[in-house]
Write a structure and sequence with these properties.
The complex is a heterodimer of chains A (200) and B (223).
Chain A: H1 3-8, H2 24-30, H3 34-57, H4 67-89, H5 91-97, H6 101-105, H7 108-118, H8 123-153, E1 155-156, E2 159-160, H9 175-199
Antiparallel strand pairs in A: 1-2
Chain B: H1 12-59, E1 72-74, E2 83-90, E3 93-103, E4 111-118, E5 123-130, H2 165-168, H3 196-218
Antiparallel strand pairs in B: 1-2, 2-3, 3-4, 4-5
The chains are: A mainly alpha (200), B alpha+beta (223).
Chain lengths: 200, 223
């Protein structure tokens, strides 16, 4: 696989949310609005980038049997550092993003990429992989969050689209709405792929 | 996950290598975290203090002193934090007080909040200092009503504390005419949809704060 494919596969062909179906805990929990989705996506992408680089850098010295605990320590350390630095130097940002930070540790995309990609590839390729996966994750969350915010809150990026009297489909900001929207998105992705293969 | 069988308990040197690697990684990350913590401790405390000053300015009725300098400790049995009062004065006369307190009845571990009460016993403002409620659900206790897209800042640093619909409903309420409970518990506080627990926690914390602050005045606690 060349460098471009390593980068681009995360966006579409192996999109972490819509193709690999990984990291559903944060995906379903924080996509009630577009801004929250964007915040979660950006924070995850950053930690993914750092952890992929470090894991790829230390892959030769870590014994095979001990790799998972080592990766978890690396990821958890980065998450804590990001949290502290945000609080110290970007206080306003940490007030809005701070809630997502602890959720990043439980995101299996990060451990998944460390295990299946970074531990087997060079640092540069791991960087590209993390960038692609990060962008793919953020985009998927953004689409999900936008649909749910428009239908459930009648706004987009916090900006009201309809008047306050207009009824909203509250279901879409509640947890079941996350599953329904995600299911519809997956269906559309599969239909689109099937259509493309038929045409080819 | 590799499919080949991993031998259980290798040779002595293999085991030693495994142990040493994990110990080394843990020591390095602990040292790194300690370093980052010591470097960020000061700035974090500074930002928190600044936020406190801003929040006090907002939730206390008109005052011409520095409320943060009037801090007094209150007993806080069974609480996960300390309780402090702050006093706002104008021309030497007390205009209102604020209580810094917390509650553990939310969905997350602790909600820290400031409640301001005027001399007459009406709530002048509620400010959530920190919370860890679920994003998108309980976190809406601090959500602001937006008039512009997110890239346009509306009120500068700290956002718009006066524009948070859930907290705004406490403004100018008094214990005599307003029941500080969510509607489901027979009160007057409109809970956030699907976040009754967080709403209830804040409503009850505000009620307790009002009781503590008005109790102080009754005892003539003008210390």
């Amino acid at each position: 696989m060349n460098s471009w494919q390593n980068f681009s596969k995360g966006v579409w062909k192996e999109n972490p949310v819509l193709r690999l179906l990984l990291g559903f805990c944060p995906t379903l929990a924080v996509t009630t609005s577009a801004v929250d989705a964007l915040g979660m996506g950006a924070a995850t992408a950053f930690v993914l980038l750092c952890s992929n680089l470090v894991v790829s850098g230390i892959k030769r010295v870590v014994p095979d049997q001990m790799r998972i605990p080592v990766y978890i320590v690396v990821i958890a350390s980065f998450v804590t550092i990001v949290d502290l630095v945000l609080q110290a130097y970007f206080y306003d940002l940490s007030k809005s993003l701070g809630l997502f930070i602890p959720l990043i540790v439980v995101n299996c995309i990060i451990l998944g990429r460390a295990e299946s990609f970074a531990s087997k590839n060079s640092m540069f390729q791991s960087l590209l992989d993390a960038l692609g996966m990060g962008i793919g994750f953020t985009l998927a969350l953004l689409v999900l969050g936008s649909i749910r915010e428009v239908l459930g809150s009648g706004s987009i990026f916090g900006l009201a689209l309809v008047s306050a009297e207009c009824p909203r489909v509250l279901l879409f900001v509640l947890p079941p709405g996350a599953f329904i929207t995600l299911g519809l998105l997956l269906w559309m992705m599969n239909e689109l792929d099937a259509w493309r293969t038929r045409r080819a | 996950m590799s499919d080949e069988k991993v031998p259980v308990g290798g040779s002595f040197t293999e085991n030693l290598k495994m142990i040493l690697t994990v110990v080394f990684v843990c020591v390095v990350s602990a040292a790194l975290l300690g370093f980052v913590y010591s470097k960020t401790k000061g700035p974090i405390a500074h930002s928190r203090q600044q936020e406190l000053v801003r929040a006090l300015g907002y939730i206390l009725p008109e005052h011409d002193n520095q409320p943060v300098e009037t801090r007094r400790s209150l007993p806080a049995e069974g609480l996960k934090c300390r309780r402090y009062t702050y006093t706002g004065t104008r021309d030497g006369g007390i205009t209102g007080r604020a209580l810094q307190t917390c509650t553990t009845r939310g969905f997350g571990p602790v909600i820290h909040l400031l409640v301001g009460v005027s001399k007459e016993g009406a709530v002048t403002g509620v400010y959530i200092l920190s919370h860890q409620e679920t994003p998108g659900l309980g976190a809406k206790i601090t959500e602001e009503q937006k008039r512009f897209p997110w890239w346009r800042r509306e009120c500068g640093t700290g956002g718009c504390p006066g524009n948070r619909p859930f907290l705004r409903q406490f403004a100018n309420r008094r214990v005599e005419t307003f029941t500080f409970k969510v509607e489901r518990d027979g009160g007057d506080v409109a809970a956030i949809t699907a976040s009754t627990i967080s709403s209830r926690a804040v409503a009850e914390a505000v009620r307790e704060a009002v009781e503590v602050l008005t109790g102080l005045d009754r005892k003539g606690g003008g210390r």
